[in-house]
Write a structure and sequence with these properties.
single chain; about 475 residues; mainly beta; flat
Length: about 475
């Protein structure tokens, strides 16, 4: 098929089959639309399939849930077909009128259904990388690829009959990237003349599913844009999509498939939420049950900025200056969130020497110590930093675009014509973004064989796209 428009798509076939393969039917002629969603904050792919049923297929098949829906499509991006395969998790919005009934099939990855039926009982011991793989391969039994990154520390967890996906989400913020991490502390003095200990480093992972398989990677890995990446993994690395250009559709020399249809910034520099989350500066109080020791540690985003990988070219944090009682101060250096944490190193350690890896010179100190000092505040700062700039973008459909990929955009400079002639691109808002969520929307009743629009939710932690940022002055 020859694709004349950038949004054209060929619907090869749409089938439904029982899980045991006992019955398989083509429902291509009954379907009017299909939507599939991937997100780095979701452990499963979800979707919706709209059906206009004039043959009473709903009752004669019948659809009971658990059936496998396979959607095969072709676009101009690649010669090969793109296959979406999901399971029916529910039926909604069923409306009957005369001889036709319309309904929507709610879809989810098959592993999502299996996950709901499993309660994990055996202790989870080892590196989160290996635990994640074991839960997916041995407990859930997936045949899909699983791509993971090792964490700096090993863990020992009692699952308490939790579901596999719930267990993975429970230790995501406790994982620290093995490279580019720091666990040192230094004495600092806050603005209130209180001496406290400062901690630094980076922490926090994401776990999600894409058409490539399951992904378990750190926030720093997702933000790494250097050619010689310190987080080398061929399955995480993909060629950045774009550049997508904000221009008129009839401009010569611009690839029509790379023209932005719509762009909206949904959030930028939300300092009120960042203060509440403790992004800029926060404090944590630790009490060790075994030794009775008490500590107060503080993390400052400004001081910790260079320990993290960033998507934009901005070199430092935006500060929030203010005057209090006639004296200039920096609001972003004041702790705005205080957490408490009870340290427990001894639970899974039976040796006579101290289990705390910091207090013991013994090489056999507990390998499953409570490493909360290395992730409690670091993961909060790292996750919240990605909310600095968020946008929604609509582009011609690209079924090979997936959550976790990089997205390059060139936005038009919103300036007077005199300035615009010299600088066509908005250098501050353009550049590299991380795809947080991607939605592929197929409309089968439009065009020659159907059309496709892709909507991406983007985020990044810093501004800039190559030139020095005014925020660095």
């Amino acid at each position: 098929m020859t694709f004349q428009n950038s949004i054209d798509v060929e619907i090869v076939d749409i089938t439904i089959r029982k899980p045991d393969g006992s019955r398989k039917e083509s429902i291509k002629e009954l379907c009017t639309g299909f939507e599939v969603i991937e997100s780095i904050v979701s452990p499963m792919i979800t979707g919706l399939l709209s059906v206009s049923d004039s043959t009473n297929f709903y009752n004669t098949y019948p659809i009971t849930g658990g059936e496998i829906i396979t959607v095969d499509v072709k676009t101009s991006f690649k010669d090969e077909k793109r296959t979406h395969e999901l399971s029916v998790s529910g039926i909604s919005t069923r409306v009957a009128k005369e001889k036709i009934q319309a309904y929507v099939l709610r879809l989810v990855s098959e592993e999502g259904l299996i996950n709901e039926t499993i309660q994990v009982k055996k202790p989870l011991i080892g590196n989160p990388k290996d635990i994640t793989t074991k839960l997916l391969k041995e407990v859930i039994g997936t045949t899909k690829d699983v791509w993971t990154e090792p964490s700096l520390f090993e863990i020992y967890m009692l699952p308490n009959r939790m579901r596999p996906f719930d267990l993975i989400s429970k230790y995501l913020n406790k994982c620290v990237p093995k490279k580019k991490s720091s666990t040192t502390t230094a004495t600092v003095t806050s603005q209130k003349d209180e001496t406290t200990q400062a901690i630094n480093g980076s922490a926090g992972f994401f776990f999600w599913e894409t058409y490539r398989g399951y992904m378990f990677f750190s926030v720093d890995s997702l933000c790494d844009t250097t050619e010689e990446s310190i987080f080398e993994n061929e399955q995480l690395k993909s060629e950045p999509h774009g550049p997508y250009v904000q221009t008129a559709a009839n401009v010569e020399g611009v690839e029509k498939r790379n023209i932005i249809r719509d762009w909206t910034f949904i959030s930028e520099t939300d300092i009120m939420s960042s203060f509440r989350m403790g992004k800029y500066c926060s404090k944590v109080v630790f009490f060790n049950l075994s030794t009775g020791s008490y500590e107060e540690l503080e993390i400052d985003y400004q001081d910790n900025f260079d320990n993290m990988i960033h998507l934009g070219t901005q070199d430092k944090v935006d500060v929030v200056p203010n005057f209090i009682i006639g004296k200039e101060t920096n609001l972003t250096s004041r702790p705005t969130r205080i957490k408490s944490h009870v340290l427990d190193h001894e639970t899974f350690f039976n040796e006579p020497q101290p289990a705390d890896y910091e207090e013991s010179d013994n090489e056999n100190a507990n390998r499953y110590s409570d490493f909360a000092k290395q992730f409690t505040l670091q993961s909060i700062v790292r996750y919240d930093s990605l909310r600095n700039q968020q946008a929604i973008c609509t582009i011609p459909g690209n079924p090979w675009m997936t959550a976790g990929d990089k997205f390059i955009v060139e936005l038009a400079n919103k300036a007077p014509d005199v300035v615009k002639k010299q600088q066509l691109v908005d250098e501050e808002s353009s550049g590299m973004y991380l795809i947080k969520e991607v939605t592929h929307n197929y409309m089968f009743s439009e065009g020659k064989s159907g059309t496709m629009i892709t909507t991406v939710r983007l985020m990044r932690d810093t501004y800039g796209s190559g030139t020095p940022s005014p925020r660095d002055e």
